Amino acid sequence: MKKNIINYGIALMAMLFLFANTVYADGEIKNIDNKKSKIEWLGKKVTGEHSGTIKVKEGSIVLNGDKIEKGSFIVDMTSIINTDIKSEGSRAKLEGHLKSEDFFGVEKFPSSKFVIVDSEYLSDGNYKIKGDISIKGITKPIEFKINLHTHGDLVHVSGKVIIDRSKFNIRYGSGKFFENLGDKTIYDDFELSLDLYMR
C-alpha cells in the first residue's frame, strides 16, 4: 500500500511537471475574463447607424516578452444586443433580424472564432495582429492593430477591427449583391471595438 502511494505521488509530480512545461513552454498564458470583457459593434447604412455589444465566450493569448505568440477567441453570436434604439419593440426586432439568416444565422452558427496567426510589436504597447476569423462557417484572413497594457494583474487589450460582411456571405442590403437599393443600402463594413481583460 505504501509503495502504491509513493508510486502515485511520483506519477502525480511527473504529470504536474509535464503540464507546467506544456503551459509555459512558449510563454505565459492569459485567459479572458469574460465577465469584465466586451466587444462593441457599429453598423452603418445610408440613412444612419446602429450600435450594440456582443460577448466573448472564451479566449486566451500566450505572451512571451513583448511578443504575442498565439491566441484564440470565441464570440457568442447569440449574445448580440442593440444599445442605441430606445423602443423595446424596435430594439428586439433589430436584434432578431441580426440573429436571423439574413445576417449572422446564429441558430446554425452560434459562435464565431478568431485565431492569431502572427503578431508584430510596434511600440508603446501597440501591435499589428494577423489572424483568421471565422463567421457563418467561412474563414478569412484579417489584420488589425491593438494596444496591450496592464492594470495590476490584468492585461487589457483594446483596438478596432473592421470586417467586410460580404466576405462571409452576409448579403442583406449589400450593394455588392443587389442593385438599386437606394437609401435601403447597408454598408458592408462593420466595426468592432475591443475591450478585453485577461488574467
Structure characterization notes:
By secondary structure, the chain is of the alpha+beta class. Helices cover 18% and strands 53% of the residues. The chain has two helices and nine strands; from the N terminus they run αββββαβββββ. The chain has an eight-stranded antiparallel β-barrel with strand order 2-3-4-5-6-7-8-9. The protein is globular, with a radius of gyration of 21 Å. It starts with a helix and ends with a strand. Residues 2-25 have low confidence and may be disordered.
How would you summarize the topology of this molecule?
Elements: H1 2-24, E1 28-31, E2 38-45, E3 48-64, E4 67-82, H2 88-99, E5 111-123, E6 126-135, E7 138-151, E8 154-164, E9 186-198
Antiparallel strand pairs: 1-3, 2-3, 2-9, 3-4, 4-5, 5-6, 6-7, 7-8, 8-9
Order of helices and strands: HEEEEHEEEEE
The rounded Rg comes to 21 Å
Low-confidence residue ranges: 2-25
Strand order of the largest sheet: 2-3-4-5-6-7-8-9
Helix content: 10-25%
The largest pleated sheet is described as:
8 strands, antiparallel, barrel
Report the mean per-residue pLDDT as an integer: 89
Q: Overall 3D geometry?
A: globular
Question: Class by helix and strand content?
Answer: alpha+beta
What separation lies between the terminal Cα atoms? 41 Å
Task: Estimate what percentage of residues fall within beta strands.
Answer: over 45%
Number of helices: 2
Tell me the total number of β-strands.
9
